[in-house]
UniProtKB/TrEMBL annotation:
Parts of the chain that traverse the membrane: none
MF terms in GO: carbonyl reductase (NADPH) activity; L-xylulose reductase (NADPH) activity
Stated name of the protein: NAD(P)-dependent dehydrogenase (Short-subunit alcohol dehydrogenase family)
Gene Ontology biological-process annotations: glucose metabolic process; xylulose metabolic process
Parts forming coiled coils: none
Similarity annotation: Belongs to the short-chain dehydrogenases/reductases (SDR) family.
Sequence ranges assigned to domain Ketoreductase in this UniProt record: 6-177
SUPFAM superfamilies: NAD(P)-binding Rossmann-fold domains
PROSITE patterns per the UniProt record, alphabetical: ADH_SHORT
Domain of life: Bacteria
Assembly and binders: Homotetramer.
């Protein structure tokens, strides 16, 4: 897949799937603009691929809107930024629920709104991918806020697909299994918990960030011209395992 001449905005590009996606896009010809909270992570990424960067706390809606407006115009968008906190349902604080909703559901909405408005104003076609999770489909212990925020993101994606498709903007989601990122290590560091999850993945391993990035690039590309409104599990068969 060749992205020469394309400008792609990637949120949450400092680490994990977002960083792998930004690097892969740049290596395949794209100009990348990276958004992330950590200035140090962004500086490291810029040194590697020469991208433009914006440090922003995506839990702040005004700052998010300002950052994406400054990053535009762009041809393609990857809504990757996400966070998690681990709480049992009965112990889930409102503050954690609000934080995960703000970063995982609301910020992709704001970023996609500004991107889509820019695409329509320019009279061109576009494509965006939301990075969701198998947690949108399955309830995991201690992940109440995370599961709810990712299910909300998928619901939002479906409405975006219905409304933005006629405007020439394709919208899809990828739903990874456990992917070996810093956030996943935080959530799955317990060996017994990780072993139980791994035992249900028929391919026998957790995902690497590049595994997910390859699928994101496919969905952004013209090769996926008729793929629209899909929540695509990238899970090594987890969803079909008994």
């Amino acid at each position: 897949m060749d992205f020469t001449g394309k400008h792609v905005v990637v949120t949450g590009a400092g680490k994990g799937i977002g960083r792998a996606t930004a690097v892969m896009l740049a290596r395949r010809g794209a100009t990348v603009t990276a958004l992330s909270r950590s200035e140090a992570d962004l500086a490291n990424l810029a040194e590697e691929i020469g991208c433009r960067t914006f440090a922003v706390d995506l839990a702040d809606p005004e700052a998010t809107r300002a950052a994406i407006r400054a990053a535009l115009p762009a041809d393609l968008l990857v809504n990757n930024a996400g966070t998690t906190e681990l709480d049992s349902f009965l112990d889930l604080p409102v503050e954690n629920m609000d934080l995960l909703y703000a970063v995982n559901t609301r910020s992709p909405m704001i970023v996609a709104q500004e991107y889509a408005r820019s695409i329509v104003e320019r009279g061109v076609k576009g494509a965006l991918v939301n990075v969701s999770s198998v947690s949108a489909f399955v309830g995991f212990r201690d992940h109440a806020a995370y599961c709810a925020s990712k299910a909300g993101l998928d619901g939002l994606m479906r409405v975006m697909a219905v409304e933005l498709g006629p405007m020439g903007i394709r919208v899809n989601a990828v739903n990874p299994t456990v992917t070996l990122t810093p956030m996943a290590i935080k959530a799955w560091s317990d060996e017994k918990k990780a072993a139980s999850m791994l035992s249900r993945i028929p391919v026998g391993r957790f995902a690497e960030p590049d595994d997910i990035a390859e699928v994101i690039l496919f969905l952004l590309s013209d090769a996926a011209a008729m793929v629209h409104g899909v929540s695509l599990p990238v899970d090594g068969g987890y969803m079909i395992a008994p």
